[in-house]
Specification:
Elements lengths: L1 E4 L23 E4 L24 H10 L22 H4 L3 H30 L1 H34 L8 H23 L5 H11 L1 H4 L7 H16 L2 H11 L5 H13 L2 H5 L8 H25 L6 H10 L9 H16 L7 H12 L7
Helix pairs in contact: 3-4, 4-5, 5-12, 13-14
Length: 373
C-alpha cells in the first residue's frame, strides 16, 4: 500500500493526478507501507457526504518515518547491446586541400569510366574509325611526353650551362628529332588558324599523313611504307652524287674540291640524299647541310662513348636510317655492324673533313648488299 504526502491540506487518492495533469507546486512522494501489526490505517476519505473522519496525514507520515524503508523492487530488464556511432568528426571536418584532392580523384574516376564506355561504343559500332582514333590519341600522348622530356633536358642544360654537343647520345637524339616534329606541328597549327579551317586540316591529315603527320600518328604499316618511300626518294639522288664524285677524283687541289662541293650543293643532290628540302636558295642549302653534318658528327661522338651495344633495336634502326641505310628490311646484327663501321669513319675525321660524312650517306648505303630493293 502506498501513502502520498503533499503540501495540499486534503489527501489525494493514489492515481488521482497523472504526471501530465498534476498541478504545479505539488510534490508527491510515493513510499511502500509495510503490512504488520501496530499500524492501523483509516479508510480513505470517500467524499463530501461521508461522515467518516478524514485521516491525519501527519500522524501517518510520522509512523512511516520510524520504520526503515524497503527499496521498491525494480523489474528485471533484459540487457541490451549498445551500439556506438563512429566518430565522423574526422570525415566531416576536412581541410580544403583534402576536399580538392577528393574531388579531383572522383572526377578522374568518373571520366575514366565514361571514357571506357565511349571506347567500347566506338569499337563495337565503328571499328575502322576506332583504330584511327586510338592511334591519334596515343600519338598525342607520345608527343606530349616528348615535349615534357625536351623541356626537362632544356632546363637541365640551362641550369648546368651545358651545350648541345655535351649531352648524352639519347638526349641529343631526342632534341634533334623533337625539333623536326615541332616543325610539322607548327605548320599544321598555322594553317588551322582561320575560322573553320580545322575541319580542312583534319581532312588533309587523313589524305596526306606522310607529309603532314609525324611518326607518332602513323600506323605500323604506314611506318614501314613511308620509310620505304623516303628511302626511294633518297636513292634518286645517288647517281647524280656519284657522277660528281667521279669528276672530283682527278682533282687534288683543295680549292677545286671546295668548288665542286659548292657545285654539288647548288645542284641540290646532297639535300635530297639527306632528306632535306631542296627548294631553297643555294646559300641556305649549304648552311643547312653544314648544320646537319655537324649534328650527325656530334651524335656519332656521343654514340661512340655510349656504345652501339647499349642501344635498343628501335634505336639502332633509327640511327642507321638517319645515316642513309634503309634499316626497315635488315636484321639487327647487320644494322649494328653497319653502324659500327660508320662510327669508325666518323670519329676519325677532323673538322675540315666532315664533308665526307655527307658522301658516306651515299657510299656506305649504295655499296651495302641489303639496300638493293
Amino acid at each position: 500500500m502506498l501513502v502520498s504526502s503533499c503540501q495540499h491540506p486534503t489527501p489525494w487518492p493514489r492515481g488521482f493526478y497523472s504526471s501530465a495533469s498534476r498541478p504545479s507546486g505539488l510534490s508527491v512522494a510515493r513510499v511502500r507501507i509495510p503490512q504488520g501489526p501496530g499500524l492501523l490505517l483509516q479508510p480513505p476519505f470517500s467524499g463530501l457526504g461521508s461522515t467518516a473522519t478524514p485521516p491525519d496525514p501527519i500522524a501517518g507520515l510520522s509512523l512511516l518515518l520510524k520504520r526503515p524503508l524497503q527499496p521498491h523492487p525494480t523489474p528485471d530488464v533484459p540487457s541490451r547491446r549498445i551500439f556506438h556511432r563512429p566518430d565522423m568528426s574526422s570525415k566531416l571536418h576536412l581541410s580544403p586541400k583534402a576536399d580538392v584532392k577528393s574531388l579531383i580523384s572522383y572526377v578522374a574516376a568518373k571520366t575514366k569510366v565514361i571514357n571506357g564506355k565511349y571506347h567500347r561504343f566506338l569499337g563495337r559500332h565503328f571499328p575502322r574509325f576506332y583504330v584511327l582514333y586510338t592511334i591519334f590519341m596515343k600519338g598525342l600522348q607520345m608527343f606530349w611526353a616528348d615535349a615534357k622530356k625536351a623541356r626537362r633536358i632544356k632546363a637541365n642544360m640551362w641550369k648546368h650551362n651545358i651545350k648541345f654537343h655535351q649531352l648524352p647520345y639519347r638526349e641529343m637524339e631526342h632534341l634533334r628529332q623533337f625539333r623536326r616534329d615541332v616543325t610539322k606541328c607548327l605548320f599544321l597549327g598555322i594553317i588551322s588558324i582561320p575560322p573553320f579551317a580545322n575541319y580542312l586540316v583534319f581532312l588533309l591529315m587523313y589524305l596526306f599523313p606522310r607529309q603532314l603527320l609525324i611518326q607518332h600518328f602513323w600506323t605500323p604499316k604506314q611506318q614501314i611504307d613511308f620509310l620505304d618511300i623516303y628511302h626511294a626518294l633518297r636513292k634518286q639522288s645517288h647517281p647524280e652524287i656519284l657522277c660528281y664524285l667521279e669528276k672530283v677524283i682527278p682533282l687534288v687541289s683543295d680549292a677545286e674540291l671546295r668548288w665542286h662541293m659548292t657545285e654539288l650543293c647548288a645542284k641540290k643532290a646532297l639535300s635530297r640524299a639527306m632528306l632535306l628540302t631542296p627548294h631553297l636558295p643555294p646559300f641556305l642549302l649549304r648552311r643547312r647541310l653544314n648544320t646537319h653534318m655537324a649534328v650527325i658528327h656530334q651524335l656519332d661522338k656521343a654514340l661512340a662513348k655510349l656504345g652501339v651495344g647499349q642501344l635498343t633495336l628501335q634505336e639502332v634502326k633509327s640511327a642507321c636510317y638517319l645515316r642513309g641505310l634503309n634499316s626497315t628490311h635488315i636484321g639487327e646484327e647487320k644494322c649494328r655492324t653497319w653502324l659500327g663501321e660508320w662510327l669508325q669513319i666518323s670519329c676519325s675525321l677532323k673538322e675540315a673533313e666532315l664533308s665526307l660524312l655527307l658522301h658516306n650517306v651515299v657510299l656506305l648505303s649504295v655499296n651495302y648488299i641489303g639496300t638493293r630493293r
